[in-house]
């Protein structure tokens, strides 16, 4: 599955007074037809995309579907498969932020309403990058609640992951063969000295918390104590163990040059640049969760030489082939995103209007060298990879097949399996 994305981040900054809307900043609201045409022309069959949550979800059980209706109808007509991103780093003003304990249950109803309105959609990322969102909002003080504490981080994390799990449940009731591609940042923390080994070990345990909870995996004793010491209750923890939906998931790994960190003895961190790389870190995540893998995000600025992003594309592709040849069932690769982004260089925590040249196209929709390289890569590899894969096919229903008899049979079988899973005794 070769993919790109339309960035729909909407965090707030300045104490919640300023909304950072990347669809607005990058011109997607005005040029969405052009953007989808570019995806089609590139030969990209899968698009990470979702409605802007703050414009769509107006209140509990009140929605404005106009933009979603227009855009998803166009994607369906083009036979582009959306991987629907329902919550990307922000919530509507009326919810507040990720410290709100009502958010998971409210989000359940939002996901249910979306799935009911668009029953032909099969692939979802209900909540994007839960670890990153909780870290930036609850620990770094950058987004949304702008807290700087372990308690703020754990509170945001448990609400984000519970919202994701409840959304999966809601979607499966309406689309029993739904597949969830959980886009999550793949991280690693390197100790810079013997005195830094301990804090680095803690961070390397914490990096797994979002997926451990999401997939119903028991955390180790130290992380269990950490969660309980910072606001998670035993009942909240057991919710995740008892609502295990891992069997419906593909693990999405995001990797950027900023994903590896150098840890000092006092626990402070700085970017280390690429040391292990995507292949080694993805192998660690796959060894832990044993799921099919999709490379769901990467990019790099075009750079002063004009070739840096192309070189990064080929490096990421080589890393993906490496883990695939070693037996990890890799099913997809993504350059994120379709166009350049605004203020990614400050992680959207400042509103500077800086254009970051890291898209397949610039903001005038002119193709960049990396776009040309990605189109060539897709053309060369698209028909070769399925015959070599340990995971030969992902049972994806294309939009133009949504009404046929095969799809009906698949969803009927999936519904029966889901019912059997629900009726089975808890382990």
TrEMBL record:
Region (Disordered) location: 405-427
Alphabetical list of SUPFAM superfamilies matching this protein: (Trans)glycosidases
Signal peptide: none
Domain of life: Bacteria
PANTHER family with a match to the protein in the record: ALPHA-L-IDURONIDASE, BETA-XYLOSIDASE-LIKE PROTEIN-RELATED
Protein name in UniProt: Family 1 glycosylhydrolase
Species the sequence originates in: Sphingomonas arantia
